[in-house]
TrEMBL record:
GO terms for cellular component: extracellular region. Transmembrane segments: none annotated. It comes from the Eukaryota. It holds the Pfam family Peptidase_S8. InterPro entries: Peptidase_S8/S53_dom, Peptidase_S8/S53_dom_sf, SBT. Belongs to the peptidase S8 family. This is Cucumisin. It comes from Glycine soja (Wild soybean). One of its GO terms (molecular function) is serine-type endopeptidase activity.
Length: 254
Protein backbone atom coordinates (compact mmCIF):
# COMPACT_ATOMS: atom_id res chain seq x y z
CA UNK A 1 0.00 0.00 0.00
CA UNK A 2 1.11 3.53 -0.70
CA UNK A 3 0.77 6.84 1.06
CA UNK A 4 2.08 9.97 -0.63
CA UNK A 5 2.41 13.06 1.52
CA UNK A 6 1.93 15.37 -1.44
CA UNK A 7 -1.20 13.78 -2.91
CA UNK A 8 -3.03 12.25 0.05
CA UNK A 9 -4.52 15.05 2.12
CA UNK A 10 -5.61 13.53 5.40
CA UNK A 11 -5.40 15.65 8.55
CA UNK A 12 -2.08 14.20 9.68
CA UNK A 13 -0.48 14.70 6.30
CA UNK A 14 -1.62 18.29 5.88
CA UNK A 15 0.01 19.24 9.18
CA UNK A 16 3.12 17.18 8.49
CA UNK A 17 3.59 18.54 4.97
CA UNK A 18 4.06 22.07 6.23
CA UNK A 19 7.15 20.98 8.13
CA UNK A 20 8.40 17.76 6.57
CA UNK A 21 7.78 17.62 2.84
CA UNK A 22 10.89 19.65 2.07
CA UNK A 23 12.80 16.80 3.72
CA UNK A 24 10.51 13.75 3.41
CA UNK A 25 9.45 13.56 -0.24
CA UNK A 26 7.54 10.28 -0.09
CA UNK A 27 6.36 7.60 2.32
CA UNK A 28 5.06 4.08 1.66
CA UNK A 29 4.25 1.03 3.74
CA UNK A 30 4.14 -2.70 3.04
CA UNK A 31 2.13 -5.40 4.78
CA UNK A 32 1.18 -8.12 2.32
CA UNK A 33 -0.70 -10.20 4.90
CA UNK A 34 -2.67 -7.24 6.19
CA UNK A 35 -2.30 -8.47 9.78
CA UNK A 36 -1.81 -5.77 12.41
CA UNK A 37 -1.20 -5.85 16.15
CA UNK A 38 -3.08 -3.57 18.52
CA UNK A 39 -0.26 -1.01 18.68
CA UNK A 40 0.43 -0.96 14.93
CA UNK A 41 -0.45 2.18 12.98
CA UNK A 42 -1.90 1.23 9.58
CA UNK A 43 0.07 3.84 7.68
CA UNK A 44 3.71 4.83 7.13
CA UNK A 45 3.66 6.66 10.45
CA UNK A 46 6.26 5.63 13.00
CA UNK A 47 4.59 3.73 15.85
CA UNK A 48 7.45 3.47 18.34
CA UNK A 49 10.25 5.82 17.31
CA UNK A 50 12.74 3.53 15.57
CA UNK A 51 12.13 4.97 12.11
CA UNK A 52 12.29 8.57 13.33
CA UNK A 53 15.54 7.81 15.13
CA UNK A 54 17.22 6.20 12.13
CA UNK A 55 16.20 8.77 9.54
CA UNK A 56 17.34 11.63 11.78
CA UNK A 57 20.69 9.87 12.08
CA UNK A 58 20.88 9.72 8.29
CA UNK A 59 19.67 13.16 7.27
CA UNK A 60 18.61 15.16 10.32
CA UNK A 61 18.84 18.94 10.00
CA UNK A 62 21.13 21.00 12.22
CA UNK A 63 19.73 21.51 15.74
CA UNK A 64 21.55 24.10 17.82
CA UNK A 65 21.94 23.87 21.60
CA UNK A 66 21.06 20.17 21.63
CA UNK A 67 22.05 18.16 24.70
CA UNK A 68 21.34 15.00 26.65
CA UNK A 69 19.83 16.19 29.93
CA UNK A 70 22.21 19.13 29.83
CA UNK A 71 25.29 17.09 28.89
CA UNK A 72 27.29 17.45 25.65
CA UNK A 73 25.60 20.67 24.58
CA UNK A 74 26.25 21.60 20.97
CA UNK A 75 24.86 21.35 17.45
CA UNK A 76 23.37 17.98 16.53
CA UNK A 77 23.03 16.90 12.91
CA UNK A 78 22.52 13.85 10.76
CA UNK A 79 25.09 12.43 8.39
CA UNK A 80 23.84 14.34 5.33
CA UNK A 81 21.49 17.17 6.42
CA UNK A 82 20.91 18.23 2.81
CA UNK A 83 19.54 14.82 1.78
CA UNK A 84 15.89 14.15 0.92
CA UNK A 85 14.16 11.10 2.35
CA UNK A 86 11.85 8.50 0.85
CA UNK A 87 10.53 6.28 3.65
CA UNK A 88 9.53 2.63 3.19
CA UNK A 89 7.97 1.02 6.27
CA UNK A 90 8.17 -2.78 6.32
CA UNK A 91 8.36 -3.76 9.98
CA UNK A 92 5.48 -4.13 12.41
CA UNK A 93 4.90 -5.22 15.97
CA UNK A 94 5.20 -8.88 14.99
CA UNK A 95 8.33 -8.43 12.89
CA UNK A 96 9.42 -7.89 9.29
CA UNK A 97 8.34 -10.26 6.53
CA UNK A 98 10.89 -11.05 3.82
CA UNK A 99 8.30 -10.42 1.11
CA UNK A 100 7.58 -6.92 2.46
CA UNK A 101 11.27 -6.07 2.81
CA UNK A 102 12.07 -7.24 -0.72
CA UNK A 103 9.05 -5.36 -2.08
CA UNK A 104 10.35 -2.19 -0.42
CA UNK A 105 13.80 -2.73 -1.93
CA UNK A 106 12.35 -3.10 -5.42
CA UNK A 107 9.96 -0.18 -4.95
CA UNK A 108 12.74 2.15 -3.83
CA UNK A 109 14.88 1.10 -6.79
CA UNK A 110 11.98 1.79 -9.15
CA UNK A 111 11.48 5.18 -7.48
CA UNK A 112 15.05 6.12 -8.38
CA UNK A 113 16.68 6.51 -4.97
CA UNK A 114 20.41 7.15 -4.81
CA UNK A 115 21.21 5.24 -1.62
CA UNK A 116 19.24 2.64 0.36
CA UNK A 117 19.75 2.70 4.13
CA UNK A 118 18.46 -0.31 6.08
CA UNK A 119 18.39 -0.22 9.88
CA UNK A 120 17.26 -3.82 10.32
CA UNK A 121 18.54 -7.29 9.68
CA UNK A 122 18.12 -11.04 10.18
CA UNK A 123 17.85 -12.56 13.67
CA UNK A 124 21.16 -14.41 13.29
CA UNK A 125 24.27 -14.27 11.15
CA UNK A 126 23.56 -17.78 9.84
CA UNK A 127 20.76 -16.40 7.66
CA UNK A 128 23.22 -14.28 5.69
CA UNK A 129 25.01 -17.28 4.22
CA UNK A 130 21.86 -17.86 2.18
CA UNK A 131 22.96 -15.34 -0.42
CA UNK A 132 20.05 -15.97 -2.78
CA UNK A 133 17.26 -16.62 -0.29
CA UNK A 134 16.91 -13.74 2.21
CA UNK A 135 15.33 -10.40 1.37
CA UNK A 136 18.40 -8.41 2.42
CA UNK A 137 20.70 -10.41 0.17
CA UNK A 138 18.38 -10.40 -2.83
CA UNK A 139 17.32 -6.77 -2.37
CA UNK A 140 20.87 -5.49 -2.07
CA UNK A 141 21.78 -7.51 -5.18
CA UNK A 142 18.96 -5.84 -7.12
CA UNK A 143 20.18 -2.43 -5.92
CA UNK A 144 23.78 -3.20 -6.85
CA UNK A 145 22.72 -4.16 -10.38
CA UNK A 146 21.19 -0.67 -10.71
CA UNK A 147 24.25 1.08 -9.28
CA UNK A 148 22.61 1.86 -5.93
CA UNK A 149 24.57 1.49 -2.70
CA UNK A 150 22.86 -0.32 0.20
CA UNK A 151 24.06 0.77 3.63
CA UNK A 152 23.08 -1.63 6.40
CA UNK A 153 23.58 -1.62 10.17
CA UNK A 154 26.24 -4.13 11.16
CA UNK A 155 24.12 -5.31 14.08
CA UNK A 156 22.17 -4.10 17.08
CA UNK A 157 24.44 -4.92 20.02
CA UNK A 158 26.66 -2.86 22.28
CA UNK A 159 28.51 -1.24 23.87
CA UNK A 160 30.60 -4.41 24.23
CA UNK A 161 32.05 -6.60 21.51
CA UNK A 162 29.72 -8.68 19.36
CA UNK A 163 29.61 -10.40 15.98
CA UNK A 164 28.27 -8.70 12.88
CA UNK A 165 24.84 -9.77 11.68
CA UNK A 166 24.79 -7.94 8.35
CA UNK A 167 27.62 -8.62 5.93
CA UNK A 168 26.34 -9.65 2.49
CA UNK A 169 29.00 -8.97 -0.15
CA UNK A 170 26.92 -6.27 -1.84
CA UNK A 171 26.30 -3.91 1.09
CA UNK A 172 28.23 -1.40 3.16
CA UNK A 173 28.00 -2.54 6.79
CA UNK A 174 28.18 0.34 9.24
CA UNK A 175 28.51 0.45 13.03
CA UNK A 176 27.49 3.12 15.50
CA UNK A 177 30.06 5.52 16.84
CA UNK A 178 30.18 7.64 19.94
CA UNK A 179 31.81 10.81 21.15
CA UNK A 180 35.33 10.93 22.55
CA UNK A 181 34.24 12.49 25.84
CA UNK A 182 33.26 10.78 29.09
CA UNK A 183 30.62 12.08 31.47
CA UNK A 184 32.01 11.73 34.97
CA UNK A 185 30.09 11.55 38.24
CA UNK A 186 31.64 11.71 41.70
CA UNK A 187 30.34 9.84 44.74
CA UNK A 188 31.52 10.91 48.19
CA UNK A 189 31.29 8.39 51.02
CA UNK A 190 30.65 9.18 54.64
CA UNK A 191 34.36 8.78 55.45
CA UNK A 192 35.23 11.49 52.95
CA UNK A 193 36.56 9.20 50.22
CA UNK A 194 35.56 10.27 46.70
CA UNK A 195 35.08 7.83 43.80
CA UNK A 196 34.78 8.98 40.22
CA UNK A 197 33.01 7.00 37.52
CA UNK A 198 31.36 7.29 34.13
CA UNK A 199 27.63 7.93 34.34
CA UNK A 200 24.91 10.38 33.32
CA UNK A 201 23.66 11.86 36.56
CA UNK A 202 21.40 14.92 36.60
CA UNK A 203 20.06 14.51 40.14
CA UNK A 204 20.77 17.12 42.79
CA UNK A 205 20.99 15.32 46.14
CA UNK A 206 21.31 18.68 47.97
CA UNK A 207 24.22 17.31 50.05
CA UNK A 208 21.93 14.69 51.63
CA UNK A 209 23.63 11.40 52.50
CA UNK A 210 22.09 8.04 51.53
CA UNK A 211 23.05 4.53 52.65
CA UNK A 212 24.91 2.41 50.10
CA UNK A 213 23.95 -1.23 49.65
CA UNK A 214 25.17 -4.02 47.38
CA UNK A 215 22.47 -4.82 44.83
CA UNK A 216 22.90 -8.56 45.29
CA UNK A 217 21.90 -8.23 48.94
CA UNK A 218 18.57 -6.51 48.30
CA UNK A 219 16.59 -8.54 45.73
CA UNK A 220 12.92 -7.92 45.13
CA UNK A 221 11.71 -11.07 46.88
CA UNK A 222 8.08 -9.95 46.63
CA UNK A 223 8.50 -9.96 42.87
CA UNK A 224 9.92 -13.49 42.87
CA UNK A 225 13.62 -12.60 42.56
CA UNK A 226 16.23 -14.33 44.72
CA UNK A 227 19.13 -12.16 43.61
CA UNK A 228 19.80 -8.82 41.99
CA UNK A 229 22.70 -7.70 39.82
CA UNK A 230 21.09 -4.60 38.33
CA UNK A 231 20.31 -6.35 35.07
CA UNK A 232 16.63 -5.45 35.38
CA UNK A 233 15.01 -2.69 37.38
CA UNK A 234 12.23 -5.07 38.47
CA UNK A 235 14.66 -7.28 40.41
CA UNK A 236 15.65 -4.52 42.84
CA UNK A 237 13.94 -4.18 46.18
CA UNK A 238 11.41 -1.30 45.89
CA UNK A 239 12.31 0.14 49.30
CA UNK A 240 15.99 0.41 48.39
CA UNK A 241 15.23 2.09 45.08
CA UNK A 242 13.57 4.89 47.04
CA UNK A 243 15.99 5.32 49.93
CA UNK A 244 19.44 3.95 49.10
CA UNK A 245 22.24 4.05 46.56
CA UNK A 246 22.87 0.60 45.09
CA UNK A 247 26.27 -0.73 44.12
CA UNK A 248 25.91 -2.76 40.93
CA UNK A 249 28.49 -5.14 39.45
CA UNK A 250 28.60 -4.65 35.70
CA UNK A 251 30.98 -5.11 32.79
CA UNK A 252 29.52 -2.35 30.64
CA UNK A 253 28.67 1.31 31.06
CA UNK A 254 24.92 1.87 31.60
Amino acid sequence: MHFDCVRKRDSFCIKACRHLCSKVIGVKYFNIKGVYAKDDIKSPRDAQGHGSHTVSTIAGNLVKSASLLGFASGTARGGVPSARLAIYKTCWKKGCLDCDVLAAFDESIADGVDIISVSAGPPSSQDLYQYFQTSYNIGSFHAMKRGILTSNSAGNSGPGFSSMLNYPPRILSVAAGTISRKFLTKVQLGNGMVFEGVSINTFDLKNKMFPMVYAGDVPNTAGGYNSSTCSWDACWSPCCKRSAMELCPTRSIP
